[in-house]
Write a structure and sequence with these properties.
nine-stranded mixed β-sheet, 13 helices, Rossmann fold, BirA Bifunctional Protein, domain 2, alpha+beta
Length: 438
């Protein structure tokens, strides 16, 4: 992709109402544009990152056995009346009446709709266990939207819903999502700590938030330092027996501010291991039994032929919010530092003199060879001064920077920089391309 033909509206300064680093950098790097309070347009660079984050979430859901579908954004109010949540949910729900006077709502979550889909088609225990997920835009009319995509009104979310015959089976489904979340966030370069959490309007008695530690996090959290240092389970776990992994992580103290018990924290955690930090919620999982299946009559015939209400859980990941969390955890004074797995491009090729034929030929060769290696390449072929090009490359955070100019080319060298470390090396083009290829 040639930068001269790309749409990348960067800003030298962030708007004054952008209070946290991720919001400032997303605006400055041309990832988003605010259209209304808590509502953003995703510009080309931001959309590329959003798509890569979404794909990681999708792959880990499928690895854990979940099946993807897509539900509509608008839902019938009557479904929510069945569960008893329509009047209880509060002003965050955007309620709509269509031209036929039917009451609708812009879905903030999908427990009712997925329960309706399930009860329409599944009648026997033989179809269980079942976990259905989708990735969809949602809307919650936050009273005070702030912090950019971290607390917006419109947001992209992955929500999954498990259906099982009994509590024991449902807790196994819960464990699968627990482990899937650990793997998901690790692939994005994040260390997410599961913390016992309030069930909020979703309901139930078992819930964990997955918290990314960051100095600019939105709330205070408390945990045993060993949780941050634990290795990730990985894809090769025994998906049928995950209890030991879950037990290992839930045995140590970890709590959000609203669930914190100072006395317990001190009694259960050695002083050297007590970690008090700021944190960002990136995922939330719930087991709530028959909270929705009972009032909505979602039942299956059991092995004995008798009808029984299914046990359910729901599992959310804030896909669009994750971009803010990644930036909060990975940036410096110059801009964003994207982990390789979610970066919008793998490498930016910087042409230091766009009117020099030899430099242009070398740049074109580098771009073509990198693309042949399967790399996503942004080619800065603009006539911007070198300092501006370097500043833009650092701001947008692409992992590799390959700089080609007339002076280095005369010596048979190009410069390769690793954005995360700032390390620079001057090497022949072939060697530079081999290093990027890996």
């Amino acid at each position: 992709m040639r930068l001269s033909r790309y749409f990348l509206p960067t800003l030298k300064e962030a708007p004054s109402d952008a209070q946290i680093v991720s919001h400032q950098l997303m605006l400055r790097a041309g990832l988003i544009k605010q259209e209304a309070a808590g509502i953003y347009a995703w510009l080309p660079l931001g959309l590329r990152v959003l798509n890569r984050v979404e794909q990681i979430v999708r792959e880990e859901q499928e690895r854990a056995g979940a099946v993807e579908l897509l539900m509509p954004t608008l839902q019938l109010a009557d479904l929510w009346r069945e569960s008893g949540r329509y009047d209880a949910y509060g002003p965050e729900m955007l309620r709509i009446t269509d031209r036929h006077e039917r009451e609708l709502l812009y879905g903030p979550t999908n427990e009712e709709m997925i329960t309706d889909i399930f009860r329409s088609f599944v009648k026997s225990y033989k179809a269980l266990p079942l976990n259905l997920f989708h990735i969809q835009w949602k809307f919650r009319d936050e009273r005070r939207p702030r912090f950019g995509v971290m607390r917006g009104r419109e947001f992209l979310m992955k929500d999954a819903y498990s259906f099982d015959l009994d509590e024991a089976s449902a807790r196994k489904a819960y464990n699968r999502m627990f482990v899937a979340y650990l793997n998901t966030f690790a692939r994005m370069g994040l260390k997410a700590v599961p913390m016992r959490a309030d069930t909020r309007p979703i309901g139930g008695d078992l819930s964990h938030e997955f918290i990314v530690l960051a100095e600019t996090g939105e709330s205070q959290v408390f945990c045993d330092r060993k949780l941050v240092e634990m290795p990730v389970p990985g894809a090769d776990v025994d998906w049928n027996d995950l209890q030991s992994i879950v037990d290992q992580r839930t045995a140590l103290y970890a709590a959000t501010e609203e669930m914190h018990d100072a006395a317990r924290f001190e009694s259960e955690t050695a002083e050297a291991d007590r970690l008090t930090a700021r944190g960002i919620e990136v995922g939330h999982i719930f087991y709530f039994g028959t909270k929705y299946s009972a009032p909505m009559k979602a039942r299956v015939a059991g092995p004995d032929g008798k009808e029984t209400e299914v046990h359910m859980g729901s599992y959310g990941v804030g896909v669009s919010r994750l971009l803010g969390a990644i930036i909060e955890a990975s940036h410096d004074d110059s801009g964003i530092i994207w982990p390789d797995s979610v970066a919008p491009f793998d490498v930016v090729v910087i042409n230091l003199r766009s009117n020099d034929e030899a430099v242009c030929v070398a740049c074109e060769e580098a771009v073509a060879r990198l693309q042949a290696f399967g790399k996503d390449v942004l080619y800065d072929d603009t006539d911007e001064r070198p300092g501006g090009k370097f500043a833009t490359a650092d701001l947008i955070g692409i992992p590799g920077q390959l700089t080609i100019g007339p002076k280095g080319l005369a010596e048979g060298l190009v410069e390769l920089k690793r954005r995360a470390t700032g390390e620079k090396v001057s090497v022949p083009l072939d060697e530079a391309l081999a290093r990027v290829r890996g």
